[in-house]
Amino acid sequence: MSVQAVMAPGLQAPAEQASAPARARTWGSSGWLLLCLAVPAAAVFFGYAYFLPWIDEGQFVDPGASWHFGQGFTSSAWPYQRPDELFFGNAPGFPALLGVWFDLFGFGLLQARALVWLQALVAAGLLWVGMRRQAPGMDPLFTAFALAMCFCGWGVTLSLWSARYDLQGLLLAAAAFAVWTGAAGSLQRPAAFLLGAAVFPSGFHLVVAAVLAAAVVLFVLGRSAWPRLAWGAAGLAACALLWMLGLALDGQLKKFIYLTFGSQHTLSGQLAQLVVQGDPGVMGKVRNGWRFVLQDPSWTLVCALLAGVLALGWRAWAPQRRQILGWVLGLVLFVPLGLLVVGKFPPYYIWIGYFPAVLLAAWLADRLPGRLRSAGISASVLVFALAAAIGVGQRLGEARSTLAAGDYGRFAAWAGHVPVAGDLVFSDFEAYFAARAAAGRVFTPTYGQTRLVPGIPEAGRITLLLVQRRNLDKYLTLMGPGPWKVVSRHEGAKDPRLDYVALRRDDTRTATACAAGTRC
Questions:
Q1: Domains of the chain (ranges, CATH numbers)
Q2: Distances in whole angstroms, Cα of residue 150 to Cα of each of 5, 122, 476
Q3: Where would I find the H helices in 161-225?
Q4: Could you read off the pLDDT of 389-420 as tens digits, one per residue?
Q5: Rounded-to-5 percentages of helix, strand, coil across the chain
Q6: Using alpha carbons only, what angle is made at residue 161 by residues 307 and 201, rounded to the nearest 5 degrees?
Q7: How many Cβ atoms from other residues are within 10 Å of residue 19's Cβ?
Q8: In 3D, which of 91, 79, 162 has the Cα closest to residue 433?
Q9: Rounded CA gap, 249 and 182, in Å?
Q10: Taking the CB of residue 421, how many other CB atoms lie within 10 A of it?
Q11: Cα separation of 48 and 187, whole Å?
């Protein structure tokens, strides 16, 4: 039985049956994928130069940086743990992979974001393989264009330009799609087990997303899907149990449970607030859940396109309506809405609904009957391009002020020149990567100041402040008594985010270092 017959029996356009060999000869090269990926690739490299480091990058890179610099798998940028504790924050697999990556290629902003770009490139290749298997008669140029536009959406570009764990989840989803559409064989079930095991350390939200997606697959395909899903579930359960065992042996299991299931971001935490404090926030999220699609204009456009394509093919697809609606409503809306209700659904999770929306729209447009097919493909190309223009345009607009201010590299050179080896630095995020490479430890504004880590316990030992001038008074209050002395400044006349000041608690140390010929 073909893949198409399993996914949506009989869903094959007459045009595809007649002209698939001709189109395969005309557009048969996968070079179209690389050609179309040049669009997001160009945006990526522009974004590296002008999209400043931000809060999440410091948080999720720091455990990998600590590993690379021989400080263990720890973090001084996480709110709930001290630097002497094993890191167990969200998506620990990403900084663990970063630690190995830094050992191979060195530490820096470019290296951190390059890992994300590599994950995106591999994910694109796996999605290409899955789409060619799922729709072998679909025009490869149209397939490649749709895939490239997936990476240019409003929410997806935020993940693509950030050293965050989001696209590691996309990589796993793409691998699962490629495995699922492959021929059944002895390796398919072990592959499902390994992919299931990789879900847990790649993001705790992915556990929820995987369960919801599995429910959609079972609804559409029925019992035939159960064996492969069971292997994936076994891998997920095995990894989760090993993780819990490791935390128990390290004495941190209770803290992990408290942070994971007691957080205000989780349904359990919100229900507790509703019962104990009368907080109606969770009910408000359910009532206003439909608005979550509107937070991403690219996603809104593609969902409108998808609705239009469904309307055009509604009569012709009468025997397959249940399967089609199952995939569309399940993957595009049910899984994201479930994540919103159970936890949260911020812009950098939007890929979970956006990629299925784009690929399903392309797949269904290619299968419209008769003349509607050409109209559907033309409309899809137009909407995909518009959605991509919104996404890339938004990020370029955010980078505009940095472009006007000059090369970020000049600021990074200044920030890396100020610390002395062995310094304990408190730094804002724009200077994080430069300071982390030069100093012994870098504490960030997200560290501590929570119930589990009150205040900043190491404040009295911090030797250097490397912060935005507008935040200076607030940070001096956190650090406690000085004396502090300004040792350097960086003017950010056109971008206040780069208006920095460096203060040292004991200037004698700087004078000694300068006399010895080292950095000061």
A1: 30-261+296-400 (no CATH), 408-515 (3.40.190)
A2: 26, 14, 44
A3: 166-181, 188-199, 204-221
A4: 999 888 877 777 566 556 678 899 999 999 99
A5: 70, 5, 25
A6: 85
A7: 14
A8: 162
A9: 40
A10: 10
A11: 38
